[in-house]
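Quick one, tokens below. Sequence please?
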């Protein structure tokens, strides 16, 4: 430590303790998105915008398509496992393991097993929870899957996500092996 360190600011009594109980608290938003269910445990308004914490229920075959964003994202696998593709390389993250995805790096993950996986996702700074809320659909519980989308609904979802993504410093990437991806 140096002698020039700034003092710790005083306690901000306008901010309250946050307790998240994802299986009991009916106030927590559960959002169905790309077949997964994301529960917003702690949102940016509760952390002065510093981070958001999301409980992710990822069924077999679930997980987001390739994307990147201008914020840090960390996952801890609570149950199961996921295949994580990071800059074109794929690894398996298993229960108890944590990975950090640096800002701007292309990535995706998939649950390639036959049992659900559960991840704890931290995004810093906050904002990703707002994007999820705007493009996803509300579901009743932490493990309830979103309703399947028909082709017209799927097209509308993709268009909405692509339109909103830049506002949330996110870029949706083409799947590997497509013509668009090869031109990047």
């Amino acid at each position: 430590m140096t002698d020039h360190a700034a003092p710790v600011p005083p306690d901000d009594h306008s901010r309250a303790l946050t307790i998240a109980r994802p299986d009991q608290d009916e106030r927590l938003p559960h959002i169905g998105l790309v077949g997964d269910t994301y529960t917003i445990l702690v949102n940016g308004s509760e952390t002065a915008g510093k981070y958001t914490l999301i409980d992710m229920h990822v069924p077999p075959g679930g997980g987001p398509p390739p994307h990147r964003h201008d914020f840090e994202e960390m996952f801890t696998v609570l149950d199961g496992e996921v295949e994580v593709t990071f800059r074109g390389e794929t690894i398996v993250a298993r229960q108890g393991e944590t990975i950090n995805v640096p800002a701007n790096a292309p990535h995706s993950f998939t649950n390639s097993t036959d049992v659900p996986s559960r991840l704890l996702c931290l995004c810093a700074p906050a904002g990703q929870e707002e994007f999820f809320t705007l493009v996803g659909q509300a579901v009743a519980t932490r493990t309830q899957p979103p309703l399947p989308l028909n082709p017209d609904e799927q097209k509308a979802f993709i268009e909405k996500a692509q339109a909103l993504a830049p506002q949330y410093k996110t870029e949706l990437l083409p799947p590997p092996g497509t013509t668009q991806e090869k031109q990047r």
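The chain has three helices and twelve strands. The CA atoms of residues 109 and 176 lie 13 Å apart.
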